[in-house]
Amino acid sequence: MEEYFKAEFLTGLVATYGPKLLGAIAVLVVGLYITGILTKLVKRALEKSETDVALQTFIGSMINVILKIMVYITAFSVLGLPMTTFIAILSASFLAIGLALSGTLQNFAGGVMILLFKPFNIGHFIQAQGHMGTVKEIQVFNTILHTPDNKVIIIPNGGLATSSMTNFSMMPTRRVDWTFGIAYGDDVDKAYEVLNRLIEADERILKDPAPFIAVKELGDSSVDFVVRAWVNSGDFWGVFFKMNEQVYRTFDKEGLSIPFPQRDVHLYQQKS
C-alpha cells in the first residue's frame, strides 16, 4: 500500500511539473540559441554602421548579458514560479551580488568611462598597471592587451580608468632621443657633420620639426651629444635602432671614437 501511494505521488508530481520543466528547458535551449544569433546580428549591424570598434565589443557584450537574463526570467516563469516571488528573490540576489562584487561593478563603470572619454582605442599601444601592449579588445569588465612578445594581458577596467596611463599611439608623431659620446680630443665639428648627414639620409625622419643636435655634457670619459628627431609614431623603433647601428659603423670609419668608461689610477710609494 505504501509503495502504491509513493508511485501515485511520483506520477502526480511528474504529471504536474514534468511539462513545465520540459517547457523551461526548451525555453532555455531555444532562448540561448536565439541570443547567440541576435548578438551576432547586432555586432554585424554595428560593423556596417562603422561604429567605433571599442564600442562594438562593449555593446555586443552588454546585449548578450541582457538577453541571457531575459531568457532565464522567462524560463522561471514557464516553470511556474510566481513573478512577484521571483523578482523579490532576484532583487535580493542582485543586492548580495552587488555587495560581494563591488570591484566588478567598479570595472563595469570603468569600462563605461573608457568608452566615453576614450583615453585609448583598439590598436593603440599603451603602458598601464605595470604592463605594455597593444589594445585588442575593450570588454565590459576588462581590457585585453597583446604584448610585443605575444603575451595576452587582461587588465580590469576599474583600475585602468582611474590610474595613470601612457598612450604611445594617440599622437601621430613622436620624438626620438639619443645620446652619443666621442672621446676627448676627437673633432667636435666632424661629429656634428656626421650626425647631421646620418639624420638627412633617413627619409623616415621628419624635416619639421627640425632635428636637434647639441653637446649635452662633458662626461667623465666622453663628450656627449644629444640628438633629437621627430618621426611618425609607427616608425619610432625602426628609426631608433637603425640610427644606433649607423652611428656605430660610421663613427669608426670617420675616425671618431666611442669611448668606454675609464679611470686613472695613481700609485704613490710611501717612503719609510
Mean pLDDT: 81
| CA-based gyration radius | 33 Å
> What is the number of helical segments per DSSP (H or I, 4+ residues)?
7
Q: Approximately how much beta-strand content do the residues carry?
A: 15-25%
Largest sheet features: 5 strands, antiparallel
Q: Spans with pLDDT under 50 lasting ≥5 residues?
A: none
**What is the rounded distance between the termini?**
123 Å
Strand order of the biggest β-sheet: 4-3-2-1-5
How do the helices and strands follow one another from N- to C-terminus? HHHHEEEEHEEHEEH
The coarse overall form would be elongated
Percent helix range: 40-55%
Helix and strand composition category: alpha+beta
Number of strands: 8
Summarize the structure.
By secondary structure, this protein is an alpha+beta fold.
